[in-house]
């Protein structure tokens, strides 16, 4: 980080972001950040010491990051997923989740103050991510950090939990007493969905690997089916009001659709918009994806009487504050399996690529 004493320089525009460090007033204009200059394996990630910190817009907040988690989206983007959108914008900074301390706020920010501990997550298409000493998020992408958890623990929560929130609360609008099937409850989004549904008073069945059975049952699932050893169509009984499919392959889609009550919601995380746009380019790929989604919605509405949706994370201030409340109460957490210093970001990505670490990985910043 480059630090300039305010007494030794001429007055600078508000873009030279002001914060307080002890009793010294400093301007932050650059910081360490992990850049993605091109797509590829972990070796393409570059930790650079002097990356520019952009101007703050009126609704934005500068966060001194203490911990950022690695999401599956990060490793996919590094490998080229979504390149139809992101390639013209290289180099990028990866990362969606962050937990840290407010360093500066834009002119219109009202709910957060300098020095406050916060956590939050960026939209999936954000160009300047959180793998940096200083991250920039809009006010509605942040919430006060739950006091009962550490920065490492907090950084693992927002992106996964907000994705699950969008599916269950914004799309399916689950209510007390309803039945939910989570396909892939051992992953971060699936595990968050189980906890959100249990907190809402729903009855939850989930599929997962054998190593996750005890954990999902402890989180409140009433039935956990080992998909590696059991036939889901034989073991899972009854019908559901909603299915969240975090795996999203044709087989899980077929099973999920058939297990729904009429009027139910099938939601998958594996929408085809990015894949089709990457294959055919944005001008052709996006209309194709829209047509595919519309066709499936019409098809399943006619054949099964259900709603069909592709789920993507979106900023949701109300959702994030409820996630914070549940986390504070001990009703929502995402286990962190291992931490790495930001200087070992390549090693962290390599471990995720090779599936050496199945659980959540967090990068720490000193």
Automatic annotation (TrEMBL):
GO molecular function terms here?
oxidoreductase activity
Question: Record's SUPFAM superfamilies?
Answer: GroES-like, NAD(P)-binding Rossmann-fold domains
Q: Tell me the InterPro entries matching this sequence.
A: ADH-like_N, ER, GroES-like_sf, Lipid_raft_assoc_Zn_ADH, NAD(P)-bd_dom_sf
Q: Which SMART domains match?
A: PKS_ER
Under Pfam families, the record lists: ADH_N, ADH_zinc_N_2
Instruction: Please list the residue ranges annotated as the Enoyl reductase (ER) domain.
Output: 40-363
Among PANTHER family, the record links this protein to:
PROTEIN AST1-RELATED (PTHR43482)
Q: What is this protein called?
A: Reticulon-4-interacting protein 1, mitochondrial isoform X1
